[in-house]
From TrEMBL:
The lineage of its organism: Bacteria, Pseudomonadati, Bacteroidota, Cytophagia, Cytophagales. InterPro entries: Antitox_Xre, Cro/C1-type_HTH, Xre-like_HTH, Xre/MbcA/ParS-like_toxin-bd. GO terms for molecular function: DNA binding. It comes from Catalinimonas alkaloidigena. PROSITE patterns: HTH_CROC1. CDD domains: HTH_XRE. Residues 29-57 form the HTH cro/C1-type domain. This is Putative toxin-antitoxin system antitoxin component, TIGR02293 family. It comes from the Bacteria.
Length: 132
């Protein structure tokens, strides 16, 4: 199983856009947070919600469409990073400012969809030994 499928509890044969529309289980938030070594505040910021909103979610229920879409994006990039480097290295790497990201950390860059795409480009190049 891919990291994405494990983090989101998404069946391998699932169609991503349909899975997202049905609602990602709220329990995926905790799995992503633990896997990436994020604090509750960091994951809340990445999901554009307050920590209070996070604490009110029922982990057995699916989240709304916006939150599901955002969780998918975060799980997808985290899966990409961990499949390329492993969890331990990826945890350290997301906290290091990078010149290729304008001096921001990859974690800061994950705040937007455009940032996630840029992060995928930079990480992909680095994983293949191409300077950035």
């Amino acid at each position: 199983m891919s990291a994405l499928s494990i983090l989101l509890e998404m069946p391998e044969q699932a169609t991503p856009h349909l899975f997202i529309r049905k609602g990602v289980p709220a329990s995926a938030i905790q799995r992503i947070m633990l896997s990436a070594g994020l604090s509750q505040k960091e994951i809340a910021d990445l999901l554009y919600v307050s920590t209070r909103t996070l604490s009110r979610l029922d982990e057995h229920e699916p989240v709304n469409l916006q939150l599901s879409d955002r969780l998918y994006q975060l799980a997808d990039i985290w899966g990409f990073l961990t499949e390329g480097w492993g969890e331990d290295y990826a945890r350290r790497w997301i906290r290091k400012p990078l010149r290729a990201l304008g001096g921001e950390t990859p974690l800061q860059t994950m705040m937007t969809s455009a940032g996630i795409e840029r992060l995928r480009q930079v990480a992909g190049r680095l994983q293949h030994g191409i300077p950035v």
